[in-house]
From TrEMBL:
Protein name, entry field: Glycosyl hydrolases family 31-domain-containing protein
Catalytic activity as recorded in UniProt: Hydrolysis of terminal, non-reducing beta-D-glucosyl residues with release of beta-D-glucose; Hydrolysis of terminal, non-reducing (1->4)-linked alpha-D-glucose residues with release of alpha-D-glucose
Glycosyl hydrolase family 31 C-terminal domain location: 693-781
Leader peptide range in chain numbering: 1-21
Molecular function, one GO term: hydrolase activity
Residue span(s) of domain Glycoside hydrolase family 31 TIM barrel: 270-685
């Protein structure tokens, strides 16, 4: 009876103190924890609904389970799910759960402490060392319904929160009246404050000297995360989920870098990329034919701007159909000739692939139908949308035959001997995007009305000979492949089974009672219908946010199948948590505006340092709308400090290859020269992230976590731990107000010291072909003594060491080298450099014999600037030299 009384009292309190604006939610009395079992390393309990179900946004689930496990010293796993295990959970095949080493776990006390109140149930997580509360759900009752889950944590006032992407808002999130919606969307022009292409339900809470922690919610359902203050001024963060379970990983830090590394333990270490992937890439939508593509290659060469990789957008396709070539404008023989030509010159070629397959007379469709791999409606009919080629069907990545299908399409179309021998892959439209508005009942009519596929530009005869190009561009013929149409087949192939976490039956999968702030309107608008059921029984409603990442993973497999020993490079638009373990990301269809130029820095930092997708970059010079000479010039320089460096442009916009303006060409030559000299420094730091999760591209507060002045900065960043990049960010400006942390820095160009005081310093007279760079004291940067036209050439250049002594007079640095492209490296060079008392020395692993040497050492800050000392140190054994 005590229980009942307490219960009533709690209910009253809940009503009186409720801060929720919705009256109906106030009737939800939460849950009561019973059968609590505490054990070393964890706890479990049953949670039983208190009072009558409130059934606000779907039926309340009456019996829940709570499992708590201290998985490592720094990671706490808390999961709340339905006792019957019918509610959908993210499948392990898509997001492999981290392995838990129970023995290791018990060696030291965990850094986080879980506590709970039993009725109404709430839980809290605190930092053991200082008692700091990290998460506390006691302010409102847990709501767990079949189409709505609500959990709120209180937070300190004015918290420094980061993450919850993908978004184009400031790196440090707004904390009042702010909603982050996660529902992957084809988000043309990446507008601020809206849901974009990816879903990363992870935030960092940085509290300066008391530490940083991370909270990752493994949930792929649509959601709104509200960050706001309640009526009484209490700061909170609230999850509003359209389904799934509450599967939390709390990461203790205590530094931002450590939180990032702990997240990598959960989401997977990022994939290593080939060395050449860091070269400069050129792309655009709207190259009219293979001659124009070849002309761009030729023009880059003439302008003396190193071009590593040429790309082609959907222009190469016949009527925009994947796995086809436009026979007039991109005939196979000429495409192959261009690829051969590029390969002979140590350059590469990349094209785009979309997931949607044209519903028409083409082999990719026919073979897919034979294997029955396309998504179907619940009545068994084929589901159709309308994308670039017009009416399309969509592969079901959960179908057991889809891997064979996809790998086979890649093997045929991208065959090295007879097809388009690409070096890496670009995948797009995989949210999945569908141009056709919900309910898209007539995709054929929609395609016709919207000119899909768009009319290609008219084919041209061979326009002129291209200087330097061999006899490759002669007219050639290719037989059209004719395919017989196979009849439609299929029935609802799936039978529901209880207890398999496949999703509760009887939900409204199209218009759930709770509405998230999806910028595309209703859930299924502009994408695949959310009521489709995949071959394994999962609903698109639950798995929508996984579609792009599943396509990415399988496309990586398909690339590996073509070149089993080589690291694949796959650049995707849509991502889910953990995608970085397999693929890279570009920031989507931005605009050629100063605003997007600025935003690109915060976006890049979020992906690299928080979401563990370190191979990332924006469309340099901007995608849609016309760029300007000055913007393109500044972006050519900023882009050189993006991990992924690609100029890309929208159909119909003015040309923006770097050689189009002399000032931009000059900026690009200078930026690429610096980037290439630094390439091994970057490669080393990137490699370290793939092994340890330590982010290599850093917001300032990651390096100076105790300096409050750094917390909000997202227009400057550290490129590797040693180089501070402070780009000019305003139109027409030749100056920038740059924050210098309390430390010693040196100007990259002059070696002159700058003593930072945790204040802003105005850097001025920065021409349109310059970008301010400063080396952090305490660093040694190995650079290539000269740049080169390709990364293949670059790898033959000797090294130079730049030594930037710290406030204590010392410095350290690292160099990692391998063959640049193999998945497994038989031999490596892993060197640590140290500088102390005017002596530089190095040692490490030298199994990779490169024949390379260090030819000089530059010490910054000496003689008022820099002093260069010629040396001759082979990088084949430990060495050192006194610099006097
Ligand atoms: C959680 O918040 C409640 C209400 O403010 C407070 O009473 C409780 O002590 C907090 N729990 C922890 C562990 O901080
Ligand atoms: C390449 O350069 C030539 C000569 O400047 C120019 O006429 C042509 O338009 C350029 N082509 C492309 C695709 O940039
Ligand atoms: C779907 O999107 C279109 C274009 O943004 C919009 O006009 C329409 O209202 C949306 N429909 C729904 C049902 O959300
Ligand atoms: C871009 O510039 C071209 C050429 O000046 C012009 O025709 C076009 O309308 C411009 N487009 C936009 C979006 O401003
Ligand atoms: C690139 O090649 C051109 C032409 O051969 C040459 O003049 C230039 O110096 C090369 N650039 C670099 C950075 O090696
Ligand atoms: C949010 C934003 O910047 N949107 C802009 C993106 O670019 C388009 C085209 O220039 C503009 O119309 C949008 O306002």
């Amino acid at each position: 009876m005590m229980v009942t009384t307490a219960l009533l009292l709690w209910s009253l309190l809940a009503l009186v103190h409720s801060v929720s604006s919705s009256l109906s939610l106030d009737n939800c009395l939460g849950y009561r924890a019973v059968n609590v079992e505490e054990r070393p390393g964890g706890l479990s309990a049953d949670l039983m609904l208190v009072g009558q179900p409130c059934n606000t946004y779907g039926r309340d689930i009456e019996n829940l389970r709570l499992e708590v496990e201290y998985e490592t010293e720094t990671r706490l796993h808390v999961i709340i799910y339905d006792a019957d295990e019918n509610v959908y959970q993210v499948p392990d095949s898509v997001f492999p759960r981290p392995t838990v080493h129970h023995q290791r776990r018990n060696e030291n006390a965990p850094e986080l402490k879980f506590s709970y109140e039993d009725s109404p149930f709430s839980f809290a997580v605190s930092r053991l060392s200082n008692g700091e509360p990290i998460f506390n759900s006691s302010g409102s009752n847990l709501i767990f319904q079949c189409q709505y889950v609500n959990l709120r944590t209180s937070l300190p006032q004015n918290p420094n929160l980061y993450g919850i992407g993908e978004h184009s808002d400031p790196l440090r999130l707004k904390t009042t009246g702010y909603t982050r919606t996660l529902w992957n969307r084809d988000a043309y022009t990446i507008p601020a404050g809206t849901n974009l292409y990816g879903a990363h339900p992870l935030y960092f809470d940085h509290r300066g000297e008391t530490g940083t922690h991370g909270v990752f919610l493994l949930n792929s359902n649509g959601m709104d995360v509200h960050i706001d203050q309640a009526g009484d001024g209490t700061q909170f963060l609230e999850y509003n989920l359209l389904g799934g379970v509450l599967d939390f990983y709390f990461l203790a830090g205590p530094t931002p870098k450590e939180v990032s590394m702990q997240y990598a333990e959960v989401a997977g270490l990022p994939a290593m990329v080939p060395y050449w992937g860091f070269g400069f890439h050129q792309c655009r939508y709207g190259y009219r034919d293979i001659f124009e593509v070849a002309a761009v290659v030729s023009n880059y060469s003439h302008a003396n701007i190193p071009l590593e990789t040429m790309w082609t957008d959907i222009d190469y396709m016949d009527q925009r159909k994947v796995f086809t070539l436009d026979e007039r404008r991109f005939p196979l023989q000429k495409v192959r000739a261009l690829v051969d030509f590029l390969h002979q010159r140590d350059q590469r070629y990349i094209v785009m692939v979309d997931p949607a397959v044209a519903h028409s007379d083409n082999t990719a469709f026919t073979r897919g139908m034979e294997k029955d791999v396309f998504m179907r409606r619940q009545d068994g009919s084929l589901y159709e949308g309308a994308v670039w080629p017009g009416p399309t069907v969509f592969p079901d990545w959960f179908h057991p035959s889809t891997p064979d299908y996809w790998i086979n399409e890649f093997a045929l179309f991208f065959d090295a001997e007879n097809g388009v021998d690409i070096d890496a892959l670009w995948i797009d439209m995989n949210e999945a995007a569908n141009f056709c508005d919900w309910p898209c009942s007539d995709p054929v009519a929609f395609a016709k009305a919207n000119n899909l596929p768009p009319d290609p530009p008219s084919a041209r005869p061979n326009p002129s000979s291209l200087p330097g190009f061999p006899e490759v561009f002669q007219p050639g013929n290719r037989n059209k492949r004719r395919i017989k149409q196979s009849p439609r087949q299929g029935q609802g192939k799936y039978k529901y089974e209880d207890g398999k976490k496949l999703g509760i039956q009887g939900r409204d999968l199209i218009d759930p009672p709770y509405t998230i702030a999806n910028a595309a309107g209703s859930l299924s608008n502009k994408t695949i219908n959310t009521d489709l059921i995949h071959a394994n029984g999962l609903a698109e409603y639950d798995t929508h946010n996984l579609y792009g990442t599943m396509m990415s993973s399988l496309s990586r497999e398909a690339m590996l199948h073509r070149r089993p020993e080589k690291r694949p490079l796959v650049i995707t638009r849509s991502t889910f948590a953990g995608a970085g373990a397999r693929v890279a990301h570009w920031l989507g269809d931005n605009a050629s505006t100063w605003e997007k130029y600025r935003t690109s820095i915060a976006q890049m930092l979020a992906f690299a340092s928080i979401f563990q997708i370190p191979m990332v970059g924006s469309d340099v010079c901007g995608f849609t709308s016309n760029t300007t000479e000055q913007l393109c010039s500044r972006w050519a320089m900023l882009g050189a400090f993006n991990p992924f460096y690609r100029n890309h442009n929208e159909y119909g916009m003015i040309s923006q290859e770097f050689y189009q303006w002399e000032s931009v060409a000059e900026a690009a030559r200078k930026a690429i020269e610096i980037r290439y000299q630094l390439l091994d420094y970057m490669y080393t730091a990137f490699y370290r992230q793939t092994r340890t999760g330590e982010p290599w591209l850093l917001p300032l507060f990651f390096v100076y976590p105790d300096e409050p002045g750094t917390f909000g900065i997202d227009l400057q960043f550290f490129y590797g731990g040693a180089l501070l990049v402070s780009p000019v960010t305003e139109d027409g400006s030749t100056s920038v107000d740059a924050y210098f942390p309390d430390d010693l820095f040196y100007d990259w160009y002059t070696g002159l010291p700058v003593r930072g005081r945790g204040e802003v310093i105005r850097l001025s007279d920065i021409s349109y072909t310059d970008i301010p760079l400063h080396v952090r004291g305490g660093s040694i940067i190995p650079v290539r003594a000269q740049s080169a036209n390709t990364t293949t050439e670059l790898r033959k250049r000797d090294f130079r060491l730049i030594i930037a002594p710290g406030l204590d007079g010392r410095a350290v640095g690292e160099l990692y080298l391998d063959d640049g492209e193999s998945l497994h490296q038989p031999a490596t060079l892993e060197v640590t450099f140290r500088y102390e008392n005017s002596r530089v020395s190095f040692d490490g692993v030298f199994t990779l014999q490169t024949g390379l040497r260090i030819e000089s050492v530059t010490v910054f800050g000496r003689g008022g600037g820099q002093e260069v000392v010629a040396v001759d140190l082979p990088l084949s054994k430990p060495g050192g030299v006194d610099l006097g």
